[in-house]
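Retro notes (design track)

What went well: tokenization of the new backbones is finally stable.
What didn't: we kept losing track of which sequence belonged to which structure.
Fix going forward: every design gets posted as structure first, then sequence, in one message. First example under the new rule, 163 residues:
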């Protein structure tokens, strides 16, 4: 056999083996992050959202929050999942407008406050088919120490006098 033909067969065999391994390799790699649970029953689980935590007028942290929307019976969940970006945007905007964290922590949100504030926003997006909002998961982006207790009113700046 000719040496050139032998080299060509060897190279083509190696290339096809590498291509074959590349095609099979992704099938065996485990998923790094599990996707959010699918919509089941009368609940719609939203993807994780970074809710801003503001203290002293400054953005200091984000808390990663996952919400579950309770839907009325007979609601088409696939239609509701199309509205998920609007729900997530409403949550982030709410976080910038309202302090959703307890006064003694910069690492979590108040689940009751988030639920009560998000329910009317969700109902404004899709109507009264959303019957409840529940915080299913929360984790801070980074851990921060608890804020100092609020200073007394004596430490408040004096009002400016106009000349």
């Amino acid at each position: 056999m000719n040496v050139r033909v032998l080299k060509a067969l060897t190279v083509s065999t190696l290339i096809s083996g590498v291509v074959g391994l590349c095609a099979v390799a992704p099938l065996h790699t485990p998923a790094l992050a599990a996707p959010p649970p699918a919509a089941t029953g009368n609940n719609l689980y939203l993807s994780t959202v970074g809710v801003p935590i503001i203290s002293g007028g400054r953005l200091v942290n984000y808390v990663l929050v996952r919400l579950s929307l309770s839907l009325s019976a007979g609601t088409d969940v696939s239609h509701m999942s199309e509205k998920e970006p609007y729900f997530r945007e409403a949550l982030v905007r709410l976080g910038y407008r309202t302090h959703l964290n307890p006064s003694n922590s910069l690492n979590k949100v108040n689940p009751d406050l988030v639920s009560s504030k998000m329910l009317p926003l969700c109902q404004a997006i899709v109507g009264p088919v959303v019957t409840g909002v529940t915080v299913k998961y929360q984790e801070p982006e980074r851990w921060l120490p608890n804020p100092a207790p609020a200073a007394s009113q004596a430490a408040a700046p004096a009002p400016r006098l106009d000349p």
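Added context from the reviewer: The CA atoms of residues 101 and 110 lie 5 Å apart.
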